[in-house]
Predict the structure.
Amino acid sequence: MNQTSKKILLVVAGTSPQIVTETLYALVTREKNPWIPDAIQLLSTKTGCDRARNELLHASRNMFGQFCEEYLQPGQKILFDETSLHVFTDSNGNPIEDIRDLESSAAVADRIAEKVWELTRDENTEIHASIAGGRKSMGFLLGYCMSLYGRVQDRLSHVLVSEGFESSRDFYFKPKVSKIIHDAQNRSLNTEDAEIMLAEIPILHLGSRLSKHMKDKPVSFAKLIDLMENYMQEPSILIDTEHRKLFCHGKEIKLSPINFAFYRYVAIESFERGIVDLEKISLEDFIAIKKLARGANWDREYEEEAINLYNYRDEKGDKDGEAVSISSFIRDRKNEIKNAMESHLGPLGLKHYVIKKRKLNSYIEVEKIEIY
């Protein structure tokens, strides 16, 4: 993480925008490593965003401005304005007033996942997410997404406010000069007695393990759950020879016919013998690989081409996009298969399923291999 990384406070909120200033107070005033964000992002329903706008930003209330005036040093600024408020929308782009059914709940889950993906995509950001606001489901969804997209620099927390102050609509943070306010039952409270504590919640930081295509675009919350389930599975390979399909970790890996045939050969050799010296592959095995890739189109002409390629041992590489030697053929197969594994499975594919090398030998380390 860059020393000049942008710090972002991400908050889910309901109809109590106090969660923003209460969390800020806990972060800014903590004795060890006070944390001052560069910007705040707030996710809520239309009702929640309207209330945050009125209470935190409107000139007649301006509770956010009051906090900054009391607790920020001259020159310090936190970006929090109209553009920082993000209203949950349904699948048609309509604002969600409240989360009252399965459809709106699923839409909120997807919007939270999308926002966390967006903010964690930049490696020069540091996210502190608060799950204290809004409905319990919103906090749960944010925490889940932070575990799946989060990096080592990201944090998750819940702010705790002492009894009475938590339910007071007049309490936003503990001012330096005490005030008398009233709780929900109209009982008077002295802000000097308020306690605001930050409880940090450990997360898994699985962001580094996401596959490339999941880093490049947001996916639904349901897709993220599928990812989690994949990581929990035991490494396994299933090879469907008839249909030329490969499944790793329960997920189909799209390979070209020649890459499928080559991977199948290495998988079988690894499973039966532990290793395979690809530079000493027999002509019979090489022809079998090419024949499986060609399928019904195999004929004598293709067999002669395979024999000529096998017998040519120059290391010069490719010609017009095709391998010109057995060495370049093997190198191309391994590179293309590696790219496919990384694209579909991310680091999980590189860890378990890619063709690895030990000295002069190659191998696939997965012990559970099924071949049909």
Notes: Residues 317-321 have pLDDT under 50 and may be disordered. The chain has twelve helices and 16 strands. The CA atoms of residues 24 and 41 lie 12 Å apart.
